[in-house]
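Support request from a user on the community tier.

User writes: "When I paste my structure tokens into the form, the page sometimes reloads and wipes my input. The last time it worked, I copied everything first. Here is what I submitted, just in case something in the input itself triggers the reload:"
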């Protein structure tokens, strides 16, 4: 796809050639070139690339690059439609897989799906093997961050969108890239995309509190107690201070004294004492008094509090890790979120004891490491109009529209994904500012302003969620 216009003379030549009786190799070749030029113009990309976030409405203006018959796959992935376009060195893809699957995990009988790109050179992305390599050789492996790879959604879906930066291969505007698939299914013939002009960078999101903000909540999976690990504590502490939250939700804590640590960090700069409600390795911290909610699942901590005289209920959680849609880990996650929904219902019904009656109508925030890598059901439980009826705030990175909250720098790991989630009551929690904090996104002046260093976010494999509300 290209922004190059088809000239008047090209149009005239195409009309003359197509009107010729008979054919010759020269005429056929000229017709093929001109038709390709016309097709490229017809398939020009939209003004801005789509966000790789698992929502597909922003693909509506992109033409189909290839189709494949349904039912011809040798494994679970059954390609039907592929869309593709390029901007500068960035390649964007949307593809259907025939039924609801997880891109990166599933039953061994599913097989795998491999994306094959002819660049110069060859690049392979093996979805189920979590592999990225060149020249058809798995030994020539790359990290996902080497090509800014992202795929969404992380949970099971019938289609996926992906982004790959091909700059390291010398790809630029005007280059032609051939796209094919292998493994469970393949295209009848490779699709071709012409890389368009580079897209403009989106405006950076603000990191400050907007006027009217009365609540900032920040959440992070600290990865094996990064809050207390001497090798990482300074980096985590800088992030805690930069977030400057009213409420912190932590996951994967160890034996660290969270209250004493926050007192030492003094994230709000007021020397206040922090109260902490901790259940095994998850915790909620606030300067307000915390009233614990009864919860039988060890992965969840819930507490009721008051901010500015207004009632609020917060859940910090880390649900069961890993797996894929329908497996035991996924079933456990659904059960855990169902229990949270049940606790919210009991709260609304006044069935959690007289000491919590004042919070029957409180606004609710549920945040943390949801490990949302199986089905979408844990999220659907929270959004159910007949249940908690909460709203999902899909937070994004500061300088790009990415939504991934977990990433690894190791070869062979899962690609970046949205494992951490925030949902909230839609009625009296008015959204203000919100973002995913990754120091790798920030330039030197912004890092200096926040007292951060470029590698601070590498203290954990999870990134920080920060959300501001007006609590009405």
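"...and here is what came back when it finally went through:"
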């Amino acid at each position: 796809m290209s922004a190059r216009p088809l000239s008047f003379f090209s149009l005239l030549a195409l009309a003359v050639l197509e009107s010729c009786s008979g054919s010759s190799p020269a005429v056929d070749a000229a017709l093929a070139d001109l038709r390709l030029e016309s097709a490229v113009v017809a398939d020009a990309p939209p003004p801005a690339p789509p966000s790789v976030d698992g929502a597909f409405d922003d693909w509506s203006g992109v033409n189909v690059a290839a189709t494949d018959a349904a039912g011809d796959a040798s494994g679970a992935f059954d390609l039907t439609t592929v869309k593709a376009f390029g901007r500068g060195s960035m390649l964007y893809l949307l593809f259907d897989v025939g039924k609801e699957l997880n891109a990166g995990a599933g039953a061994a009988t599913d097989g795998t799906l491999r994306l094959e790109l002819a660049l110069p050179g060859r690049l392979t992305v093996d979805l189920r093997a979590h592999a990225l390599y060149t020249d058809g050789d798995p030994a020539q492996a790359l990290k996902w961050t080497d090509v800014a790879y992202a795929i969404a959604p992380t949970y099971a879906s019938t289609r996926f969108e992906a982004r790959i930066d091909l700059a390291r291969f010398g790809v630029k505007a005007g280059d032609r890239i051939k796209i094919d698939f292998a493994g469970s299914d393949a295209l009848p013939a490779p699709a071709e995309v012409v890389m368009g002009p580079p897209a403009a960078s989106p405006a950076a999101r603000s990191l400050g509190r907007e006027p009217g903000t009365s609540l900032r909540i920040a959440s992070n999976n600290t990865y094996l107690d990064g809050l207390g690990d001497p090798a990482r504590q300074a980096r985590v502490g800088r992030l805690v201070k930069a977030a400057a939250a009213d409420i912190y939700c932590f996951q994967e804590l160890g034996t660290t004294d969270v209250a004493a640590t926050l007192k030492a960090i003094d994230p709000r700069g007021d020397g206040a004492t922090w109260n902490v409600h901790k259940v095994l390795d998850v915790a909620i911290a606030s300067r307000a008094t915390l009233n614990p909610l009864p919860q039988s699942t060890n992965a969840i901590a819930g507490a009721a509090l008051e901010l500015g005289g207004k009632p609020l209920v917060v859940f910090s959680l880390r649900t069961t890790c890993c797996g894929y849609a329908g497996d035991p880990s996924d079933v456990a996650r659904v059960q855990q979120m169902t229990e949270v929904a049940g606790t919210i219902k009991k709260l609304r019904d006044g069935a959690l004891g007289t000491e919590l009656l004042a919070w029957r109508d409180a606004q609710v925030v549920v945040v943390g490491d949801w490990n949302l890598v199986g089905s979408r059901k844990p999220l659907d439980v929270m959004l159910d109009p007949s249940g908690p009826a909460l709203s999902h705030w899909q937070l994004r990175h500061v300088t790009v529209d990415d939504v991934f909250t977990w990433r690894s720098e190791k070869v062979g790991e899962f690609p970046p994904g949205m494992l951490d989630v925030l949902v909230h009551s839609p009625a009296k929690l008015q959204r203000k500012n919100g973002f995913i904090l990754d120091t790798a996104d920030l330039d030197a002046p912004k890092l200096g302003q926040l007292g951060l260093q470029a590698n601070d976010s590498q203290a954990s494999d999870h990134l920080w969620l920060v959300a501001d509300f007006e609590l009405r």
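Agent notes: The reload is a front-end session timeout and is unrelated to the input. The helical segments are 8-19, 25-42, 233-243, 258-265, 328-348, 377-383, 444-450. The longest strand covers residues 90-101. Escalated to web team.
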